[in-house]
Structure prediction request, 564 residues.
Amino acid sequence: MIAPGSEAPKRKPSKINVRVLRQDGPGLPQYWERHQVDYEPDMNVISVLQKIAAQAKTSDGKKVSPVAWDCGCLEEVCGSCTMVINGRVRQSCSALVDRLVEDNPEEIELQPMTKFPVLRDLMIDRSRLFHNLKRVKAWVPVDGSYDMGAGPRISRADQEQNYPLSQCMSCGCCLEACPQFTKIELQRQPGETDESYDLRKKEAYDQGFIGAHAISQAMLFNAHPVGKNIADERMEALTGTGGIAACGNAQNCVAVCPKEIPLTTSIARAGRAATVYSFRKFFDR
Amino acid sequence: MTSNSSALSFFHRNEFLIRRLHSLSGLVPVGAYMCVHLITNASLLAGASVFQNNVFTIHSIPFLPLVEWAFIFGPILFHAAVGVWIAQTGKSNVQQYRYTHNRRYSWQRMTGYIAIIFIFTHVFHLHGWFHMDWWLKSVAEPLGMAQFRPYNAASSLADAMNDFGGIVWPIFYLVGVLACTFHLANGIWTAGITWGLWLTPKSQNRASVFCAIFGVFIGAAGIASLVAVKTTDSKAAKVIEDEMYKVRVEGHMVKPDDHKRTDGHQHKEERKPEPVAAP
Ligand code: HEM
Ligand code: SF4
Ligand code: SF4
Ligand code: FES
Prediction:
């Protein structure tokens, strides 16, 4: 909604209070810390975080290590700056301070996402999100040693159905808000090599819920004329451990997706495809 | 898939099949049974004799205890056990994300837990769980349980509901029936997504409306049954039921069965030798 121009601008605060949930490293305890920065017009949470890092000082003057966070594109297309802002998961680059103080003038609350292992402060490790995309082979398999020629044409109707799904930026909002997607965090054992630690993580991730983003991407690539060559492999993953059946239809995913991807339609489509696939698998063998 | 897949728990390895069977069991037989059950009970509104007739029909099903276990208790136990497991796999966050669908997700789990307590108590209260004499005589009945007498259906029901001042049980049943009603109506909606019946937000909204209407209908049947029980004159009903029983026995429509009657035990000496039923 656009506010009418005639409306007198609300009095802006001169200072912004920020409460940050910090963590010094993987597996360490979390603690809240208060910071204060000068207000400037048109700030977003990233610019607030830049000021906080530059000050490296809490609101009561104690010197602290700079708060760490992640970002990339600064235009809500890479997903790397995702965090929980005032209790709701979203991108910090598109979280405008003027809007946030309208909702709560007292303070802005910043928290790392709760469903992924924290690396430091607001930085999290979302490798499980990407691992789950690999579980459903969310790609078009065209690697090979010979020229496959031009791909088949995609009808207008299919394009319109698929384009929204292709906008996913792997931000993880849908996973953060999902009650069925629970955190998996392993502790590195003393003397464990990178390889065996990674393997242990992959095995743990393989048992967890795959998540709305991966279900939706599986539907996107199963609708692609070349991608559908490995449709059965994707269905195998979706009907396996932590697949489509683990969804509990809370529909938070679709409510928080910043790209407004019709995730629950993808979930229902995947449910239908899984019904057909499992019947076919049972009766065709 | 991986080398340790044999070490995966049975549940995890068969997650898809188990969850689909859970979904199916919620619809048929458990959900379907619940509808038939509540509508049959609501027939008490039409009078003790109508209700008694329906109960006679149900009790003419051969091998009733077997049928009860295979199609009612068994599936409920399965659905409840798997339901608790499923509920444990999630972590509700309605406080943070106050969306209607998220509330429904939480309610589905809460009403599931209520349903367990309700159904177990309800079956114990009226049915007794087991038909063995020693169980009924030394456990269930001394506790005020196993109160229902199929051949004195309305009167024994009214008596059972009037224990404890006649208000505790009706409230207990009201809460239980409404919880089960929400659970089934919302469950039909989620099952439609699970199996891929309704796909788009629009069709899912239409399905929500349909399920809500269905819920109101089933809930009304449940409330009607409770109203009917509370307004039944137990003594008058018993006279009618005993007449109906006598006619049925004389007409060889039912076998005499004192277990299914209120005052069967006092009449043991009058009992005619049971005719051997020809199949
Ligand atoms: C009156 C008895 C019951 C009926 C008629 C019933 C019916 C249903 C139905 C139709 C569903 C939908 C399945 C789906 O979403 O695919 C469902 C789901 C569910 N039921 Fe029940 N149920 C009953 C008792 C219980 C009990 C005792 C529990 C124990 C907690 C329970 C727990 C659940 C859970 C957790 C779900 C959600 C499953 C999911 O979304 O994956 N139900 N039920
Ligand atoms: S609909 Fe499924 S994937 Fe989406 S938030 Fe709910 S449980 Fe998670
Ligand atoms: S589906 Fe939406 S919320 Fe989920 S990762 Fe993709 S863009 Fe983010
Ligand atoms: S920095 Fe890329 S989405 Fe925010």
Notes: The CA atoms of residues 162 and 223 of chain A lie 8 Å apart. Chain A has a mean pLDDT of 94. Residues A 71-74, 76-81, 91, 93 surround FE2/S2 (inorganic) cluster (ligand 4) (CB under 6 Å).
